[in-house]
Amino acid sequence: MLLRRVYAALGRSQSSALTKFSTNLSLRRCVNRTQLEFRRTRQNLRLPRMTSDSRSEEMRRREYVRLPPASANKDVLLRGLEAALGSPFSSDPLSPPGNPMVIVISGPSGVGKDSVIKRLQEVREGVHFVVTATSRAQRPGEVDGKDYYFVSKEEFLSMIERNELLEYALVYGDYKGIPKQQIRDFMAKGYDIVLRVDVQGAATLRTILGNSAIFIFLVAESEEALVKRLVDRKTETSEMLLVRIATAKEEVKCMRDFDYVVVNAEGKLDGAVKLVESIIDAEKARTQQRCVRL
Ligand SMILES: Nc1ncnc2c1ncn2[C@@H]1O[C@H](COP(=O)(O)OP(=O)(O)OP(=O)(O)O)[C@@H](O)[C@H]1O
């Protein structure tokens, strides 16, 4: 229909004249393509050949729609083009609205998950880091609703029963889980959601969310760098370090199950955060947006 209008506005003679005299190669290609598409559309839709009635209607339209010359006043030219096309130009955005998304950040212990997320929240607006619910006792200095949602074991079990958790795990005798409602609430406000889980948690989330979420695997630049970082943190005993390092060696093998890998190199935290931001931006530019349903 639109192509027919264009043809009506141009008229066959003008159309071929445009093709003949256009020195702009891309415009010529565009015109050729338009003509080809018009022919194809006609064939695909099996549009009826013009009857004498429809032909006279086209003739009438050609008389009414007189395109102003390109040298005309811009407003006049725009109105003329709109009239020829039969509808006003819309100022609505042409790109799809960037859906709020769920970003799962995982990686071996000590790689810098907390550091990257903390920095990401400082430099980027519209990102909500989901506060995990836990049945663990509150430690001095921890803030309820900021570090964790502290709930009793009974409360946690009833949350499981009511299917209120996206994923949960029993870690050293304490429950930890991701409340679904918090994700729904913030997504409804347009926030992108960041989840921080260990590698096993990420595998569970992949089963639940499939490709609707983005999975990012954080790594250090080398095994040696990771070990040094863990040692420097001075939060683990030698035995705990041994377990964490052995686990990390296994976890790195899961990298291929993730969508992206981001290197958090020594002293280059901002570089890693920038790359995470670029991933989010690129995902927002996808023509086929991921869509999380909980
Ligand atoms: N790019 C970096 N360069 C140097 N040190 C870093 C970098 N990123 C993080 N660190 C440091 O490494 C240590 C571990 O970081 P962090 O606690 O964020 O890791 P994590 O992956 O959240 O660990 P865990 O899973 O054990 O909680 C911290 O002392 C942090 O300050």
Automatic annotation (TrEMBL):
EC code: 2.7.4.8
SMART domains: GuKc
Domain Guanylate kinase-like: 100-281
Coiled-coil stretches: none
Record family assignment: Belongs to the guanylate kinase family.
Name of this protein: guanylate kinase
Name of one Pfam family that matches: Guanylate_kin
GO molecular function: ATP binding; GMP kinase activity
Record GO cellular component, one term: cytosol
NCBIfam families per record: guanyl_kin
Upper taxonomic lineage: Eukaryota, Viridiplantae, Streptophyta, Embryophyta, Tracheophyta
Keywords: ATP-binding, Kinase, Nucleotide-binding, Transferase
